[in-house]
Design brief:
The complex is a heterodimer. Chain A is mainly alpha-helical. Chain A has 8 helices and no strands. Chain B is elongated. Chain B starts with a helix and ends in an 11-residue tail after the last helix. Classes of the chains: A mainly alpha, B mainly alpha.
Chain lengths: ~180, ~220
């Protein structure tokens, strides 16, 4: 006997998802709709829901190669299928670099410009380690990396604009 | 309708047409972080500009005044701030471990590491409040001079980010408790992670340039 109430509920759910304004650009919702429709078909045909076609990569690939990318995992495509980096190694690197930074002045007796350059170097190294490995920027698409070049360039320009001020101040002090 | 047709009909998504090949949520978070980074850069530039011109600083030993830039290692409890830096680094690693657990459908791990990240954020904020309390007791307040003004602007702005991050993480924790996140739906955890790592990244720079960078050896400008 076909469970019409359940089918009606599932169809209502499908309509709700498809009515969302950004439905067209959200792979996870397409996937959810696909799953719901398969469930509806299963209920109508009285088949066992044990084996679902969207969990069968061969069937999906046969239907459409592009669909396989989405169905293999909602978010798998944007993670780039990369292996997880060694997060603990990055953690130890950050801790060691912080300890080195703390020791530059009292232990290594660095002063003035040398200290400023040393601190800048180690801070940049730490920031890059966080961005590339913890924020997974290393595995992002080229387009995504290019997007970040604009604000970083503007930040550099902002600091370059401060240089004339610093130079004039230094000159006035030297006089 | 066959199963193959069902899959063909609804699951066909050309992922290359998504914004820069990533999910819209992740794209939005990266865009937000890019603009937020520029906000921090503006405050940093103000800090650098103020530093160029020096400030009237009271010598704690003989109470004399001099026009220079304060040596932060003498003003601040660096060991306490270093501990805070370490806590934030720890909370960053717990955040990536939470994401890793979510990708492996390890719900207990996800809850454990998300909880540890929230705890790290709360401890960081607690230590920052203690630091402010000591500074205010020593009459080092935002209106004291340019150094204090830019110092409080930057650290308070960052502290607000940590507070927002903790609230955001609590929302994710509640979602995880309800079983909303798994290996097929981990994007929200990844997005909150981006925000949290950004907060950590900014603190790494703040800690170095505000707390550790001593004044350059310019000629003395005693009044």
């Amino acid at each position: 006997m076909v469970d019409t109430d359940k089918i009606a509920k599932l169809e209502e759910r499908v309509r709700t998802i498809m009515a969302r304004p950004t439905f067209g650009s959200t792979p996870a919702w397409h996937q959810e709709v696909a799953e719901l429709r398969v469930q509806i078909e299963e209920i109508r045909s009285g088949k066992s829901p044990a084996v679902r076609p969207y969990e069968n990569p061969a069937l999906i690939k046969a239907a459409n190669p592009q669909a396989a990318v989405v169905v293999a995992g909602h978010d798998a495509h944007d993670a780039g299928h990369h292996e997880e980096p060694n997060y603990m190694a990055v953690f130890f690197l950050l801790t060691v670099l912080t300890l080195i930074e703390l020791g530059l002045s009292p232990v290594f007796k660095m002063r003035g410009l040398v200290l400023a350059l040393g601190l800048s170097f180690f801070a940049s190294l730490k920031a890059l380690a966080v961005a590339f490995y913890y924020m997974h920027l290393k595995w992002e698409s080229k387009g995504m990396k290019l997007l970040l070049i604009l604000p970083i360039s503007l930040i550099v320009v902002l600091f370059v604009l401060v240089i004339p001020d610093a130079v004039s101040k230094f000159q006035s002090v030297m006089q | 309708m066959s199963h193959a047709e069902v899959v063909h009909d609804t699951a066909v998504v050309d992922t290359s047409k998504n914004a820069l090949g990533i999910t819209p949520g992740k794209f939005a978070m990266w865009s937000f972080l890019a603009s937020d980074g520029m906000g921090f850069a503006g405050l940093f530039a103000a800090f650098v500009a103020a530093r160029n011109h020096g400030v009237w600083v009271r010598n704690m030993e003989d109470n004399s005044m001099s026009l220079t830039w304060p040596n932060p290692t003498k003003w601040f409890a660096i060991d306490l701030t270093a501990l805070n830096t370490f806590i934030l680094i720890c909370s960053s690693v717990t955040m990536v471990l939470a994401l890793s657990a979510c990708r492996k459908d390890d719900r207990a791990g996800l809850l454990k590491w998300l909880g540890a990240t929230i705890l790290g954020g709360c401890v960081f904020l607690g230590i920052q409040v203690i630091e402010y309390k000591h500074l205010i007791h020593a009459n080092i307040i935002p209106s004291t001079d340019n150094f204090c003004g830019t110092f409080y602007s930057l650290t308070c702005y960052h502290g607000l980010h940590v507070f927002s991050g903790v609230c955001y993480l609590i929302c994710m924790f509640i979602g995880a408790l309800r079983g909303k996140y798994n290996s097929k739906n981990y994007s929200p955890i990844e997005i909150v992670g981006l925000f949290w790592h950004f907060v950590d990244l900014v603190w790494i720079l703040l800690f170095t340039f505000i707390y550790l960078l001593e004044p350059l050896d310019l000629p003395a400008m005693n009044s």
